[in-house]
Amino acid sequence: MKAYTIQRYSKKNTLQFAEMPEPILKENDVLVEVHAAGVNLLDSKIRNGEFKLILPYKFPLILGHDVAGVVVKIGSGVQKFKEGDKVYARPADYRIGTFAELIAIDETDVAIKPRNLTMEEAASIPLVGLTAWQTLVEKANIQKGQKVLIQAGSGGVGSFAIQLAKHLGATVATTTSESNFELVKSLGADIVIDYRKDDFETILKDYDLVLHSQDVKTLEKSLRILKPGGKLISISGPPDTDFAAEITSNWFIKTIINLLSLGVRKKAKKQKVIFQFLFMRAQGNQLNEITKMIESGIIRPVVDKVFPFEKVNEAMAYVESGRSKGKVVVKVK
Prior knowledge:
Number of domains: 2
Helix content: 25-40%
CATH architecture of the largest domain: Alpha-Beta Complex
Number of strands: 16
Oligomer: single chain
Number of helices: 11
Largest sheet: 7 strands, mixed
Order of helices and strands: EEEHEEEEEHHEHEHEEHEHHHEHEHE
């Protein structure tokens, strides 16, 4: 099968077009013919080696964390899916590889594609949708009337999280550039702050939750807008003690991870707020819940550009530029 691979971690190298063997199907796997694949900053970060201590991949490695496609074969133990099903998924860590013609995925990580979405639209959803769900629903348990700041509201995660937080009944503030004001307002944002002109710390106060996706300086400012007992959940680091306990690394790596967030945890404690790190995980059942919201019109995909399969590297570069509004997708079939 045709795929895009890397042979080693490098910030300079581009993905290489290659012929790769078809995936080996395990008992509980579905083999998916890839029609479209979402492109995420996570792909660039893995290529660059930023996660090599906690996610030590083997090479050659096929990148890609979002998929929409058709089931063409099932393992002997599969019960939820059949050949011909149109599905979407965020494959589990160590089983990524959607920049390819085929991918094998455990059936527990797969969901039926929303009927009202194209393959390209569906491929834009899994990683950002699960990130927003696991932040707002699973970790924060957002309730009606609470106040939420979602940073970078016009980005992939932000554009989904605004819609979900609004559906949960929260008052939603977000940061973005002035050119994206209409977009984030159309998604449900109540308070929109131009990060180039205004300091959100002087505008927002007593928030219940911050979904943090930016740098350390922004993180520290975000801690200060929370009310006592409020939460900051970061998807951009630093990893915390719970994450260190979850991963299957040795004690030395876990000690390093604990130290990385020590300063932030101390500042959070001083502010009487809670800091948590989220490294989203694959979860088919949560995708099923997201499907219901999409099919009922509560949440809509925000797709900026669709690139052809032969332009995966251009799609990666566009995502890395930070200019995308919503998600970037590669059309494979």
